[in-house]
Amino acid sequence: MSNSLLRRLAFGFAAGIGLLGAGSAGAVTAPILVVEVDSGKVIYAQGATDPWFPASITKLMTTYVALDLVRQGKVSMNSLITISAAAAAEPPSKMGFRPGTQLTLDNALKIIMVKSANDVAWAIGETLGGSVENFAALMNDTARRIGMHESRWTNPNGLPDARQWTSARDMAILGRALIRDFPENRDLFSISAIQFGKSIMANHNGLLGRYPGADGMKTGFICSGGFNVVSSATRNGRRLITVVMGQPSARERDLKASDLFDYGFNQTTGWTAQTLDSLPASNISEPPDLRPYICDRKKPMPVDEGPGAIAGNTDSSNAQILAAAAPPGSALALATLNNGAMRGRALPARAPLQPIPVWIGRDPADGAAILTAQAEAEKAERAQAQAAARQTRLDALAARRAAAKDAKAKTPEAKKALARGKSAVPSSASAYAPAEATPLLEGAPKLKVNTLHKPSAKEQPKAQAKSPAKAQAKPAAKVEAKPVAKPKQSARPARAAKAADAE
């Protein structure tokens, strides 16, 4: 390899490590841990005590607290968990249950282990703890009691919170405690799928049904923490737990976990092997934020569920930055620095799912009745919403028509017509309406109806001033004109004769 190529690789790797620094002088590596369940002996560790954002592997801690409360007799697996408005408002991944919905703790735990439903995990915390804050206090007390050193818990579902973090070692301790303390509930972590109504939801854990011997436990993903998994597998009666954190995709996380299992099952642990408690403390004080590298805005948002998470993107540009910093040996090459070898690789096709039914309410019959009632309520709500929308459209149309009519009345032509009085008469006015009901123009004299005109004193002298001869001439002329009048005489000579007589 040329010196220039070596320099470019060294510079790129140093830049990546510098970007992942979290306030410490040393490099921040993606945590990796392989441990033997029965003995607690460490087979391989890398960054195992570094603080890290847990994401949904938090739900393993939630499950331990819930099962511990059942063991103490404070609740039972049939206790009802209520979905509050706050729980229903939690972002996906979620079941989308309506506020007030109830389900048994048994079904709730199955749902959070398979679907990783944030709304259900939140409801578990609220119901069992009285509040999320009280439940987080139980989580912290339990973590200290079982030997977890780096963990700090603030919520039961693992959604982003800068105050909540854990470590690979703590998650391995928790995984061992779940297997050791609740053997009757081990199947809870290996369910391949759940069925709710007609919907079948596969487990987010891409190792189940794809890696021989895989039998749990939980995955998690947020942009700041990358893709995490706590997984368990058994081969020839020997059980291992592998923790992989901070990976750039679900596909690479699953592939690295499978490679670490292959490595671990080929190793033996002697009396000199490290234990989880003997791992050295981390030299960094807070988790790194991987958001700029995991959730690149120029690329589609990574997913931790569905076919996309299993198939994955073969682009390993982010993986080159997030590669582990420990010198790889031949047995660990695929699981540490050799991220380029992930390109084109894939786990075998998943075995057929075996869904476990879950329901709301106390039993399946109760759940079916609740779903029917909810469906009818939703139908009525849709009909009401459609009627309201229709009425809103009609009101808007009426308002537009009224506005258009008002605008037309305010045009110059309408104002002139109003000034002339053309528009002053109401449309209901009738030609037979009495004169008193007819509006008058401003300034016009008021007329009285059915009153006789009585001449005033000033008018009487004028009537008397007329000549008697003229007053008497009119009837005389009329009398005299009748005998001599001709039927076919034109009107003009008659008027002339009348004028002559008047003179």
From TrEMBL:
<keyword id="KW-0175">Coiled coil</keyword>
<feature type="active site" description="Proton acceptor">
    <location>
        <position position="59"/>
    </location>
</feature>
<feature type="binding site">
    <location>
        <position position="218"/>
    </location>
    <ligand>
        <name>substrate</name>
    </ligand>
</feature>
<feature type="region of interest" description="Disordered">
    <location>
        <begin position="444"/>
        <end position="503"/>
    </location>
</feature>
<feature type="coiled-coil region">
    <location>
        <begin position="368"/>
        <end position="400"/>
    </location>
</feature>
<feature type="compositionally biased region" description="Low complexity">
    <location>
        <begin position="462"/>
        <end position="476"/>
    </location>
</feature>
<keyword id="KW-0133">Cell shape</keyword>
<feature type="active site">
    <location>
        <position position="116"/>
    </location>
</feature>
<keyword id="KW-0573">Peptidoglycan synthesis</keyword>
<feature type="compositionally biased region" description="Basic and acidic residues">
    <location>
        <begin position="403"/>
        <end position="416"/>
    </location>
</feature>
<dbReference type="GO" id="GO:0008360">
    <property type="term" value="P:regulation of cell shape"/>
</dbReference>
<keyword id="KW-0732">Signal</keyword>
<keyword id="KW-0121">Carboxypeptidase</keyword>
<feature type="domain" description="Peptidase S11 D-alanyl-D-alanine carboxypeptidase A N-terminal">
    <location>
        <begin position="32"/>
        <end position="248"/>
    </location>
</feature>
<dbReference type="Pfam" id="PF00768">
    <property type="entry name" value="Peptidase_S11"/>
</dbReference>
<feature type="compositionally biased region" description="Low complexity">
    <location>
        <begin position="484"/>
        <end position="497"/>
    </location>
</feature>
<keyword id="KW-0645">Protease</keyword>
<keyword id="KW-0961">Cell wall biogenesis/degradation</keyword>
<feature type="region of interest" description="Disordered">
    <location>
        <begin position="403"/>
        <end position="431"/>
    </location>
</feature>
<keyword id="KW-0378">Hydrolase</keyword>
<dbReference type="InterPro" id="IPR001967">
    <property type="entry name" value="Peptidase_S11_N"/>
</dbReference>
<comment type="similarity">
    <text>Belongs to the peptidase S11 family.</text>
</comment>
<dbReference type="GO" id="GO:0009252">
    <property type="term" value="P:peptidoglycan biosynthetic process"/>
</dbReference>
<dbReference type="GO" id="GO:0006508">
    <property type="term" value="P:proteolysis"/>
</dbReference>
<dbReference type="GO" id="GO:0009002">
    <property type="term" value="F:serine-type D-Ala-D-Ala carboxypeptidase activity"/>
</dbReference>
<feature type="active site" description="Acyl-ester intermediate">
    <location>
        <position position="56"/>
    </location>
</feature>
<dbReference type="InterPro" id="IPR012338">
    <property type="entry name" value="Beta-lactam/transpept-like"/>
</dbReference>
<dbReference type="InterPro" id="IPR018044">
    <property type="entry name" value="Peptidase_S11"/>
</dbReference>
<dbReference type="GO" id="GO:0071555">
    <property type="term" value="P:cell wall organization"/>
</dbReference>
<protein>
    <submittedName>
        <fullName>D-alanyl-D-alanine carboxypeptidase</fullName>
    </submittedName>
</protein>
